[in-house]
Design brief:
InterPro entries: KR_dom, NAD(P)-bd_dom_sf, Peroxisomal_Beta-Oxidation, Sc_DH/Rdtase_CS, SDR_fam. This protein is an alpha/beta fold. It has helices spanning about 20-30, 55-65, 80-90, 115-140, 150-155, 160-180, 205-210, 215-225, 265-270, 270-275, 290-304; strands at about 10-15, 35-40, 70, 95, 145-150, 185-195, 235-240, 245. Helix 2 links the parallel strand 2 and strand 3. The longest helix is centred in the middle third of the chain and has 29 residues, at about 115-140. The structure holds 1,4-dihydronicotinamide adenine dinucleotide. 1,4-dihydronicotinamide adenine dinucleotide binds near residues 41, 194 and 195.
Length: about 300
């Protein structure tokens, strides 16, 4: 077994930490020496209402177990205020866990502007707002661990969740760009797609499955990715029920016509099977990998 991972002297912000996964993340960090900002707006599953009691309860749990924590009740949309709470209480920030979220599930043809906008505002814009407010501190100290919370609904698509899926994959795009911007400053940015029993999933999954999906199982991965000895960045992980795995992009070898690079639709149709054939697929990881194919074609052209 690996030696205990500790976060002594590390200041950790966990958004949406008044319940569900966020609470488990906060309790895990609290037990391991971190100083915490427990943020939660305290509304319901759909984002209606607000209350300070959810965050207060978790702060109390952490303190009574001997940990250090302060509460913040702002919406993640006001990320600067959450960061201000951390700086006022502890003077710095080391780790940002973007976890807060709500659902407004409805099929696309019935989705209102409000269903769409609210979900973008809380998930994508909220993750941006908190992370951007913390970013100067992380850059200045050349240290940071940022974790974004995506979802299988965004990665794979899911009926009735166009708003949520778009926001959750937007979060992955944000994380991927920030991982590149943070690289030279020792700021690692990773994304998790969890699956866990919570008020968000209690009406979606059957009881037998919910019993297996303990939210604290997800916190273990958050703990590792947030630790100073973990160098992973730009990763995307699925985690839940005692299973954890990394995802990556995969690209077919494709088909290239060469010469002037212009295809007719008939030619695409003719070569469709090789375009979609994943035999000997490649795994691009950086923007420049997009140019690989073009560079190969140009090299072939030069040889001709
Ligand atoms: P949850 O509903 O139990 O917890 C979410 C927490 O975020 C709540 O305590 C809520 O009050 C808080 N919150 C909501 N809006 C907020 C805002 N504007 N500002 C601050 N706090 C706010 O849900 P759960 O399952 O713990 O979800 C946590 C994260 O994991 C979410 O981002 C969710 O989308 C994501 N997720 C969860 C999955 C699951 O299987 N439970 C699956 C995939 C993603």
């Amino acid at each position: 077994m690996h030696e205990e991972l500790r976060y002594d002297d590390k200041v950790v912000i966990v958004t949406g930490a008044g319940g569900g996964l966020g609470r488990e993340h906060a309790l895990m960090f609290g037990k391991r020496g971190a100083r915490l900002v427990v943020n939660d707006l305290g509304g319901d599953r759909m984002g209606d209402g607000r209350s300070s009691s959810a965050a207060d309860r978790v702060v109390e749990e952490i303190r009574s177990a001997g940990g250090e924590a302060v509460a913040n009740y702002d919406s993640v949309e006001d990320g600067a205020r959450i960061v201000e709470t951390a700086l006022d209480a502890f003077g710095t920030i080391d780790v940002v866990i973007n976890n807060a979220g709500i659902l407004r599930d409805v099929s696309f043809h019935k989705m209102t502007d409000q269903d769409w906008t609210l979900i973008q505002n809380i998930h994508l814009n909220g993750s941006r707002a908190v992370t951007q407010a913390a970013w100067p501190t992380l850059r200045n100290k050349a240290y940071g661990r940022v974790i974004m919370t995506s979802s299988a609904a965004g990665i794979y698509g899911n009926f009735g969740q166009a708003n949520y899926a778009a926001a959750k994959l937007g979060i992955l795009g944000l994380a991927n760009a920030l991982a590149e911007e943070g690289r030279s400053r020792n700021i690692n940015v990773n994304t998790i797609a969890p699956i866990a029993a919570s008020r968000m999933t209690e009406t979606v999954f059957p009881k037998a499955l919910l019993d297996r999906l303990r939210p604290e199982a997800v916190s273990a991965l958050v703990g590792w990715l947030a630790h100073e000895s973990c160098y992973e960045t730009k990763g995307l992980f699925e985690i839940g029920a005692g299973y954890v795995a990394k995802l990556r992009w995969e690209r077919t070898c494709g088909y290239h016509l060469g010469r002037n690079g212009i295809f007719a639709p008939e030619e695409i149709a003719q070569h469709w099977n090789s375009i979609v054939d994943f035999t000997d697929a490649e795994h691009p990881t950086v923007m420049n990998d997009s140019l690989d194919a073009v560079q190969r074609i140009m090299a072939d052209d030069r040889r001709d």
